[in-house]
Design goal:
The structure holds 2 protein chains of 2 kinds. By secondary structure, chain A is mainly beta. Chain A has no helices and 12 strands. The radius of gyration of chain A is 14 Å and the shape is globular. Classes of the chains: A mainly beta, B mainly beta.
Chain lengths: 115, 114
């Protein structure tokens, strides 16, 4: 089965620092989708981005950017000029081909941004 | 925000008692999911439904059952709760089973089994 590893359990930065959250995945499928979700202290899960295995272009959305590299099976997430409101747990997840019913999540990275 | 309501939001109960959690959606999505979230494990799929009365097991289904009698409602039942089932439970919905469709989550139910 597919697997997602987020090796960074907790990260603490000071406001305005850049921070990168790592995500490494394993899959035997050639077609798959990667996701990032944010879980703020209030507890809900917020969808951030989806990336398919055929599109290795990096994506930028405001202060957020994502670096997808198939060669290293990584889908890393960078927050530029971090803010206190970015404090949350971030999850990386993977779905294979036509099987969204078996989405696998990483253990999550808790990001704390200090003022 | 996706129209997903989980109830109750918090529950404390004793070992051996039955517990039912409810997920209600207003999006008319076909697919619904129950996950549990535990430290160090992220989210793990318990059961999912691909239509009314159509359900299947996920990664951690032992000790849980589900039912879906209407498109909008997906129930998760712990027949005899154990302390190992203390967790935060999330319901999710998806428009289709295509892997490019993100799942959208409810706000979670915090369940404590004493």
């Amino acid at each position: 089965a597919q697997k997602v590893t987020q090796a960074q359990t907790e990260i603490s930065v000071v406001e305005k620092e850049d921070v990168t959250l790592d995500c490494v995945y394993e899959t035997r499928d050639t077609t798959y989708y990667l996701f990032w979700y944010k879980q703020p202290p209030s507890g809900e899960l917020v969808f951030l981005i989806r990336r398919n295995s055929f599109d290795e272009q990096n994506e930028i959305s405001g202060r957020y950017s994502w670096n997808f590299q198939k060669s290293t099976s990584s889908f890393n997430f960078t927050i530029t000029a971090s803010q206190v409101v970015d404090s949350a747990v971030y999850f990386c997840a993977l779905s294979e081909r036509w099987n969204n019913n078996d989405m696998r999540f990483g253990a999550g990275t808790r990001l704390t941004v200090k003022p | 925000d996706a129209g997903i309501t989980q109830s109750p939001r918090h529950k404390v109960t004793e070992t051996g008692t039955p517990v039912t959690l409810r997920c209600h959606q207003t999006e008319n999505h076909r697919y619904m999911y129950w996950y549990r979230q535990d430290p160090g494990h992220g989210l793990r799929l318990i059961h999912y439904s691909y239509g009314v009365k159509d359900t299947d097991k996920g990664e951690v289904s032992d000790g849980y059952s589900v039912s879906r009698s209407k498109t909008e409602d997906f129930l998760l039942t712990l027949e005899s709760a154990t302390s190992s089932q203390t967790s935060v439970y999330f319901c999710a919905i998806s428009e289709s089973s295509n892997s490019n469709q993100p799942q959208h989550f409810g706000d979670g139910t915090r369940l404590s089994i004493l």
